[in-house]
Amino acid sequence: MILKLDKFQDACSDILFAVDSKTNTLFTETLELNAKDNELIMNVTDRSYYVSVKVNDVSDLVGEFKAAVNAKLFLSLVSKITSPTIELVIEDNFIKIKGNGDYKLPMIYNQGELLSLPTIELQNVTNDMTISSDILQSILVYNSKELLRGPQVKDVQRYYYVDELGAITFTSGACVNNFELEKPVKMLLSDKVVKLFKLFKNVNSVKFTMSQDPVTDELIQTKVKFESDSVTLTAKLSDYNLISSVPVDAIRGMATKDYLYSVVLHKKELSQLLSRLMLFNDGTKNYGKFDFTKDEVVISDWSSANKESIKFANECPNLESYSALLNTDNLSMIVNGCDSEYITLCFGDGKAFSCVEPSIVNILPEIKENV
Fold this sequence. Notes:
Elements: E1 2-4, H1 5-17, E2 30-36, E3 39-45, E4 49-55, E5 65-70, H2 71-80, E6 85-91, E7 94-98, E8 102-106, E9 109-110, E10 113-114, E11 125-132, H3 133-146, E12 160-163, E13 166-170, E14 174-178, E15 186-189, H4 191-195, E16 205-214, E17 220-227, E18 231-236, H5 248-256, E19 261-266, H6 267-277, E20 287-292, E21 296-300, E22 307-311, E23 322-327, H7 328-336, E24 342-347, E25 352-357, E26 360-365
Antiparallel strand pairs: 1-6, 2-3, 2-5, 3-4, 4-18, 6-7, 7-8, 9-10, 11-16, 12-13, 12-15, 13-14, 14-26, 16-17, 17-18, 19-24, 20-21, 20-23, 21-22, 24-25, 25-26
Helix pairs in contact: 1-2, 6-7
């Protein structure tokens, strides 16, 4: 069969992103290619997820084309070819690639048979709906950052909680991503699955399907599928019972509560201020003191020897004075991840600050121990 270079390289770039680079097994190293009716489908898996990428502009296809090759070698080679088209031919136990030259890659066999990757099938479908790709990208962009801000002490803190009201990730603080889905749903997504949302970046929406499939009489396996016209991502999720460990109401309550004080700060000014004071952070002493008055906040480093002030962009007449210790590394990550010109800080309960921007609320706990 013959494929146009540009579209095929784009598809190969997508599927290469889905290849598991952290483990080396027969299945994770393999790219499966199946073509018929002028359509090529490429598959990879790590056994917990299965990704398919479709190419529709196949020409000169003779019969059915089935192959299994080393994923990284095949996809890396295709990325370096510059000829207008690529021809794929199966010869004996090899796949021959014709581009700038002729290249032969050995096929992968298992117990004498051409390797076939194990699929993930949804059986007992409990939910299906359409999800905007923008929602998936916001989970990838915003919720992922929370997992970088603090230690994941509990197993559940490694996952992304998603329901019909939004997504939550939490470590020492939390990220609350507010959106609405068409139908009620509850699921815990792994970091592996969320990273693969990048595959749907250039589409408007995806079809979502969930199933609850029995493994034994007592064990249920949750599976999900995300589909666009060219990409399908199917995955097995974590133990469904782990969802009950997510303090959903408490975290959302902190994000939506009426704090005593609310101040608006210019994002760029605050970011630049923090970047200067963070130069004085000393090992584990990555915190600063925040002293608020009615029209400004004075921020000093851990030693209180270095300080700057920044004026509020709003009026807060009920704020006479308030002091708190905050992790400046984490606050800086929140501020730099903000897409808005301004960021709102809500506080006053002595426990935490909520950093608010449209649809996203980050919870940053106050530091109380002797530091």
